[in-house]
Every structure is written in structure tokens, then in C-alpha cells.
Specification:
CATH architecture: Alpha-Beta Barrel
Structural class: alpha/beta
Distance between the termini: 11 Å
Helix content: 25-40%
CATH class: Alpha Beta
Radius of gyration: 16 Å
Largest sheet: 8 strands, parallel, barrel
Strand content: 15-25%
Number of domains: 1
Number of helices: 7
CATH topology: TIM Barrel
Bound molecules: the ligand O=C(O)c1ccccc1NCC(=O)[C@H](O)[C@H](O)COP(=O)(O)O
Number of strands: 10
């Protein structure tokens, strides 16, 4: 079953090669994520990202993940890589989200880190300007990476919550726990990175297929 025909839409993040993208697409993923953050073990160069993006079949959305990018970085990536969605995973403000949307002409998904109920107001704040929200686990203080840490949060915080834009659940999801996460939160979109890896930055095609199947 292809991505758009599935009940839930899955994003496999941190893909680094054409083989990774093919594995995600064949498994039925709706989105493939490319990380433009030099400190990440999943970082891709513009050339690697272009090759990976061109391997995505029609109907699979190519997501560029950025952390507080400046305009020059966005321009350089977008000149070479055919992205469909920009993911902002840093300390961007709502005003910056609006500027990135206007400058790139692409929809923007803003990541919001959650560790407790006090963080939920941030989702409301960004839902007014972003096209989608990525509801992710908040990294531990001093963590090297702002995402992709394999850390989850208490999914019960999301029970009964509704937002005016589509949202995606992320953070510590695996083939083994994704069905429970869906059952508790009602998430229709799911994002995973380290839970489908054999090692940081090394995707495992078997785990990708198992994750998409378990997401439903
Ligand atoms: O994955 C990274 O290396 C990364 C680096 C910098 C910012 C964000 C990053 N990943 C964000 C994602 O979209 C992940 O899919 C999401 O945080 C969930 O990650 P995981 O808990 O590993 O499934």
C-alpha cells in the first residue's frame, strides 16, 4: 500500500541515501526527511540531499529539516533540492516561521518540544502561523541535538487536544510502541528517526517497514 492510501501518514526522518528513500517509499511512508544540521549524525550535504530527494516517487513528500537556518542557507538548499515542506526544529519564533513561509513559498512544519503540560501553549502559539506542527519530545537540558534523540514524552498529555492545523507525533517512537502511541493520542501522522536505525544515522529497512506497518 502506498503512503497516501494508508490510514496514517508516516514520516521517516534522517534519510541519507537513495537506498534509504527507496526503503521508506516502498514501506509506504508519506514523507521522507532530510536533515540539514551539521552536528547531526544524519546530516546530508546539498548534493546528497538532491540525490535522495530525486529518488522519492511522486506522492512522497520531501521534508527539509533545518535548525535556525538563515536566509542564505534556505536559499542554497532550495536552489538545488526539490523540497515539498520545510521543518523548523530550532528556536524559531512565530514571526520567523511566517518569514520562512513567505521566502520559500513552501509550507512550514514547526517542531515544538514537549516535556509537560506547560509546553502545550507553544503548540497553540505556532498553530496560528505554521502549516503543520511536529509535537516532539523536548530534549534534555544540554543535549547536543534538538531532536532525533529517541526520547519520548507522556503521550497522555495529548488526550483530547485538538489544533486547527495538521500535526505529527514524534519522539522515541519505535515499531514496538507506535500502535500504543496512536491509541492514546489519536495521531494521524507519525515521525520517527532513531527508532528505525541500526546505529545513529544508519537506517534499517526492516525496521522502517515494521514501523510503517505497525502505525496502521
Ligand atoms: O534527527 C536529527 O539528527 C535531528 C537533528 C537536529 C534537529 C532535529 C533532528 N531530528 C528531528 C526529527 O524530526 C526526528 O524525527 C524527531 O525528533 C524524532 O526523533 P526520534 O526520537 O529519534 O525518533
Amino acid at each position: 500500500m502506498t503512503g497516501p492510501d494508508r490510514q496514517r501518514r508516516v514520516k521517516i526522518c534522517g534519510l541519507r541515501s537513495t537506498a534509504d528513500v527507496s526503503a521508506a517509499a516502498e514501506a509506504g511512508a508519506a514523507y521522507v526527511g532530510l536533515v540539514f544540521f551539521a552536528r547531526s549524525p544524519r546530516h546530508v550535504t546539498v548534493d546528497q540531499a538532491r540525490a535522495a530527494a530525486l529518488a522519492a516517487p511522486p506522492g512522497v513528500a520531501k521534508v527539509g529539516l533545518f535548525v535556525d537556518p538563515d536566509d542564505a542557507m534556505l536559499d542554497a538548499v532550495l536552489a538545488a533540492v526539490p523540497l515539498d515542506l520545510v521543518q523548523l526544529h530550532g528556536h524559531e519564533t512565530p514571526e520567523r516561521v511566517a518569514v520562512v513561509r513567505a521566502r520559500t513559498g513552501l509550507p512550514v512544519m514547526k517542531a515544538v518540544g514537549v516535556s509537560g503540560p506547560q509546553d502545550l501553549a507553544e503548540i497553540d502559539r505556532f498553530a496560528r502561523v505554521a502549516d503543520q506542527i511536529l509535537v516532539d519530545a523536548k530534549p534534555a537540558a544540554g543535549a547536543d541535538l534538538p531532536g532525533g534523540n529517541g526520547l519520548s514524552f507522556d503521550w497522555r498529555l495529548l488526550v483530547g487536544r485538538r489544533w486547527p492545523v495538521p500535526w505529527m507525533l514524534a519522539g522515541g517512537l519505535t515499531p514496538d510502541n507506535v500502535a500504543e502511541a496512536v491509541r492514546l493520542t489519536g495521531a494521524r501522522q507519525l515521525d520517527v528517526s532513531s527508532g528505525v536505525e541500526a546505529a545513529p544515522g544508519v537506517k534499517d529497512a526492516g525496521r522502517i517497514a515494521a514501523f510503517v506497518a505497525a502505525a496502521g
